[in-house]
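To the wet lab folks,

You asked to see what we're planning to order before we commit. Fair enough. Below is the target structure as tokens, and below that is the sequence we designed to fit it. If anything looks off to you, flag it before the synthesis order goes out.
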């Protein structure tokens, strides 16, 4: 199995050599995040895209074992190079999204699929969980980790309608290294200002109030897993699906 991380500059030059679905996934993502009106609410994501700090990977149908193997391999590769890619780094993985998923999957189906992927990928990780990160999702320090690296995970789906910031042409998961948030937090003036700007842009972009789960990492009342997958309404799962799936498997 050979998987590759790609930079935006490489994709800009070689996109026509890739399968059509990969061309479409990357092109539509670029149109969304770098729109000329600068409306996309994730300011660090936009800056990272334009500065060539993001890295991209492609995986097959997310329900397959092959997809899990490839996501695990991409995360391992990314963990080794993320700090060399720029200030606003992230790994974006696009999944081939067959017609039956597009036609039949509701937001809740994608939610279950997302947590299944994280759980199955984590089961293949041989590295120990970082000591400073709780392995209990009900603790405010918990977050998804792989190859010893903690990440904020973001999921986009074709099924989202209300929260447009979570609607993407292809099912995708973004993994943002925790070190990116060293200055983007509630303890710095820069972080507080960035949060204010992002929240304002998010409300304008979605046309609805921000989801109540969106808080700062480390806050006593923050649960990181609640932010990974946002439903179209304000509801949230009764307990972390990652924790439940891990117990089963």
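Sequence we intend to order:
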């Amino acid at each position: 199995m050979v998987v590759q991380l790609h930079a935006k500059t490489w994709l800009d030059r070689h996109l026509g050599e890739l399968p059509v679905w990969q061309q479409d996934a990357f092109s539509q993502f670029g149109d969304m995040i770098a729109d000329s009106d600068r409306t996309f609410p994730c300011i660090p994501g936009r800056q990272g895209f334009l500065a060539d700090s993001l890295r991209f990977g492609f995986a097959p149908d997310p329900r397959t074992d092959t997809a899990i193997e490839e996501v695990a391999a991409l995360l391992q590769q990314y963990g080794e190079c993320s700090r060399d890619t720029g200030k606003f780094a992230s790994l974006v993985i696009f999944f081939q999204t067959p017609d039956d998923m597009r036609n039949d999957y509701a937001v809740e189906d994608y939610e279950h699929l997302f947590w299944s992927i994280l759980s199955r990928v984590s089961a293949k990780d041989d590295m120990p969980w970082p000591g400073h990160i709780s392995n209990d999702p009900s603790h405010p320090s918990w977050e998804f980790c792989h190859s010893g690296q903690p990440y904020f995970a973001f999921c986009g789906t074709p099924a989202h309608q209300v929260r447009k910031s979570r609607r993407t042409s292809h099912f995708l998961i973004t993994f943002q290294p925790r070190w990116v948030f060293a200055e983007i937090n509630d303890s710095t003036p820069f972080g507080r200002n960035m949060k204010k700007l992002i929240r304002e842009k998010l409300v304008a972009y979605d046309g609805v109030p921000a989801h109540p789960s969106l808080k700062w990492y480390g806050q006593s009342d923050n649960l990181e897993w609640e932010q990974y997958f946002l439903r179209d309404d304000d509801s949230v799962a009764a307990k972390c699906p990652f924790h439940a799936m891990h117990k089963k498997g």
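Structural context that might help your review: The two ends are 24 Å apart (CA to CA). The mean pLDDT is 92.

Thanks,
Computational group
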